[in-house]
Amino acid sequence: MKIKKILFVTLIMALVLALAACGSKNKNDESSPSPTGSTSASPEESASSGALEASPAALTGDFEIQYFVGGYGDAWWKDVIDQFQKLNPDLNIKQSAGPKINDQMKPRWIQGSPPDLVYIDGAGSNPRQMIEDDQLLDLTDWIKEAKNADGEKILDVMIAQPEQYGGKTYNIPLVFGSYGTFYDKALFEKNGWEVPADFESFLTLSEKIKAAGISPYVHAGIYPDYILGGFLYPAIISANGDNGDILKDMGDMKEGVFKSEPVLKALNQLREVASKGYIDQGAPAINHTDSQMQFLQHKAAMIPNGLWLESEMKNDAPADFKYGFVPSITQAKGGKYIALPYTSTMAVAKKAKNPEAAKAFIQFIFTKQASLNWAEKTGALMNVKVDLEASKAGETAKNAMKYYNSDNTVVAPVVVFNADVFKVMGDATIALSVGKIKPEEWADRVEAAAAKARK
Amino acid sequence: MSRQAQRKIFIFTFLIPTFLFFGIFTLYPISKGMYISLFDWSGSSEHMTFIGLDNFKEIFRDPIVWTAVGNDYFLVLGKVIGIVLLATFFAVAVTRFRIRGQQFFRIAFFIPNIISAVVVGVLWRFVYNPNIGFLNSFLSLFTKEQIRIPWLGEEATALWSILWPSIWAGVGFYFLLLVASILSIPPSLYEAAEIDGASQCRQFWTLTLPLIWEQVKVSILHIVMTTLNGSFVMVLLMTEGGPDNSTQVLGSYLYQMGFRQFHMGFAAALGVIILILSLITTVILQRVLRRDAIEYS
C-alpha cells in the first residue's frame, strides 16, 4: 500500500511538472511579442526625429536582428552590433542568431511578428520565397537615395547591385563572392599545363589531363548548384553576347527563355564536355565535400566551385597546394570572362516594428571600414568595394578581386531562382551530363517547370 | 475515499497523462497535417489559401510521386525479404547449431543497430565512393583496370545501393528478437523430434518456424512500417533522391517539397498519402500473414 502511495504521488508530481513545463513555455511565447507590442510607438518617435543620417543617435525602442551563423561566424556581427549600440545607447537591440535560427524564427514569421532586420543565409532560407510570401519591405525608393555612415551612396560602393523582383528591390546583398573554376597552380606548373582562357583551350587542356590519367573536371552531382554556377550560367551569358540580362529573364521565368539559343548552345557545350569523358565518372554520386577532396588529392584537375573553397578546405589541402581561379571557361576565343556572383542578402521585414532602426543599421554597416572588418574576420568578401591588398583576406579572394576589377570580366547579375524551377534545372543538368537526356529535353523539362511556377 | 474511488484515481493517473501526450504529440499533428494538406501554403507565409483536394490531384499527376511509391515498395520488399531471411538464418544458426562464440555473433550483429542512421549513411557513402571507396577498391583487386563505378550516381544501381545498408543496419534487432523466441521453445520438443528421427531441416519447418511465427509476423510488419515511414533518412543521407529523382521515396520527396521547394500543403498531402498507404499495407499484411496459433504442449 505504501509503495502504491509513493508511486501515486510520484506520478502526480511528474504530471504537474510536465504541465508546468508546458505552461511556462506558453508564457515565454506570449512574452516575446509583448515587448515589441509595447514599443509600437517607437517608429513614430524615430520618424519624428527626422532624417536618419542627420541624427542616427536618436534611435530608441526595441530593435531585433535575426542572423544566421554559419561559415562566416558571428564575430563580425557582434562587433558591428556593439558599435551600433554605442551610437544608439537608448536602442534596445536584440540579437536572434545561431546556426538553426531560420527554423527557430519560422513560427514568428508565420505568426506575423518577425524581427525587424534579417540576414538571409543558411539552410531553410530563400529570399525569393520570402518575397513571394509578402514578408519583406519594399526598399526600392529608399535604397536609391540611401547613404552610408560615411555619406557615400550605398549603391555606388556596392560590387553587386541588389537583385530585382518585378522591378522592385527587397533585399540588399551583404556578402559577395563568385563561382568559378579552380585548379592547383602547382600541379599545372609541374605538368606544364596552361590555364584555360576559353572553351577551346579548356577542351585541349582536358584532353591532355585525361591522357595523364587524371579526371579533367569534377563537380558535386548531388548539389548541381556548382556546375550550374561554375559552368552553365557563365556559358549561357557568353553565348548571349556577354549580356547578363538573359539570366534575369531565366530568374523571371520568361516564356521560351529556357529554349532560347544561348541556353541550348551552353547545354551543348556541357554535353560535349560530358561526351568526351572529361567529367569525372563518379561526379553524379558525390557531394561537395567528396568532390573537393578529390580535387585536393589531384584525382581531378579542375572543379567548379565558389570563393569559399579555400577556407572551407583549409585543414585538408596539401602543403604545396596553390589555389588558382578563373571565373569562367566556356567563353569563345577572345571572349570576356563571366564572373557569376553569389550573395547573401539582408532585408527589412514588412511587419517590422522598428523599420527605421533596421534601415539605419544597413546604412551603418555598408561602409568600407565594415567591409574590411568583414574580410578580416571572415576571410570572405563583403559587398562593398574596398582595397583588399592590405587586408588579411584569403589569397583566392584577392585574386578574384583582380578579375572583378578587370575590363575583360563581366560580372553577371545576381539571380535567385524559383525553388521549383531550380530543382528541375539541377536534375535535368545532371541527367544531361550523364547523357540520359538531350539539350532539347532539358529545355522542355525546365520550360514546363517554369510554366507551372508562373501560374 | 472508498477503495473503488481510489482504484479509479489510480488508474486515471496512468491513463490521463498518456492519453494527453498521445493527443498532443500524435493525434493533433496528424489532424493538423490533414488540415494543412487542403491548403496552398508555402510553409513560411502567414497566408494559407484553401484549395480543397487540389494537392491530391496534383500528387496523382506528378510522375515523381509514382517513382517514389515504386521505390518505397521496392525497399519494403527488399528489406522484408533480406532482413527476415538473414535474421532467421542467423538466429537458427546461433541457437540450433550450437555454434561456438554465440555471444560474439549476437553482439556483432547488433552493433549496426546501435550506430545512428546518420553514421550508417555516411559510412556507406564512403564504401560506395567512386574513387576512394572500399567497394571499388575491393573489386579492383580482381581486375586489371581500376573500377570506378558511381554506385549511388547511376540510376540502375543507386536504389540497390541504398537497400544493402538498410538491410545491414536492420538485421540485428530482428535477429535478437528471433533468438529470444527460439530459445523460449521448450528443449523437450526438439529432443522428442530428434528421437523421432526428424532432421534439422524438418525440425526447422515443423517446429521452429510455426512456434516463432508470431515474432516473424511482428518483424515483417515492423519492417514494413518503419520502411514506409523512415526510409527517407537513408535516401537523404546517401543520394538526396537523385540522380534525377530516381531514388526518391515518398518521405524524401515530402521533405524536398515541404522544406526546400516551399510547398508545405503539397508535402502535408504527401504525408497523408504515406499514412493511408501504411495503413492499407499493414491491414493487408495482417490478413495475408494470419495463421492459426500453434501451441505444442
TrEMBL record, chain A:
A family per Pfam: SBP_bac_1
The identity of this protein, by name, is Extracellular solute-binding protein
Taxonomic lineage of the native organism: Bacteria, Bacillati, Bacillota, Bacilli, Bacillales
Spell out the residue ranges making up region: Disordered. Answer: 25-53
UniProt entry tagged with the keyword Nucleotidyltransferase: no
At the top level of its lineage, which domain of life is listed? Bacteria
Species this protein is from:
Cohnella silvisoli
Composition skew (Low complexity), residue ranges: 31-53
Tell me which SUPFAM superfamilies the record gives. Periplasmic binding protein-like II (SSF53850)
> Which residues are the signal sequence here?
1-20
Q: Which InterPro entries match?
A: Bact_solute-bd_prot1, SBP
**Transmembrane stretches, start-end:** none
* UniProt keyword annotation of Signal present: yes
Sorted alphabetically, the keyword list is:
Signal
Automatic annotation (TrEMBL), chain B:
What Pfam families does the entry give? Answer: BPD_transp_1
Q: Where in the cell is it found?
A: Cell membrane
ABC transmembrane type-1 domain ranges (all copies):
69-285
Among PROSITE patterns, the record links this protein to:
ABC_TM1 (PS50928)
Which sequence ranges are marked TM in the entry?
9-30, 73-95, 107-127, 162-183, 220-242, 262-285
What is the first-listed, main subcellular location in coarse terms?
membrane
> Per the record's keyword annotation, is Thylakoid included, yes or no?
no
Give the signal peptide as a residue range, or say none if absent: none
Its membrane topology: Multi-pass membrane protein
Identify the CDD domains for this entry. TM_PBP2
Q: Does the keyword Hydrolase apply?
A: no
Q: What name goes with this protein?
A: Sugar ABC transporter permease
UniProt source species: Cohnella silvisoli
For this chain, the family text in UniProt reads: Belongs to the binding-protein-dependent transport system permease family.
List the keywords (alphabetical): Cell membrane, Membrane, Transmembrane, Transmembrane helix, Transport
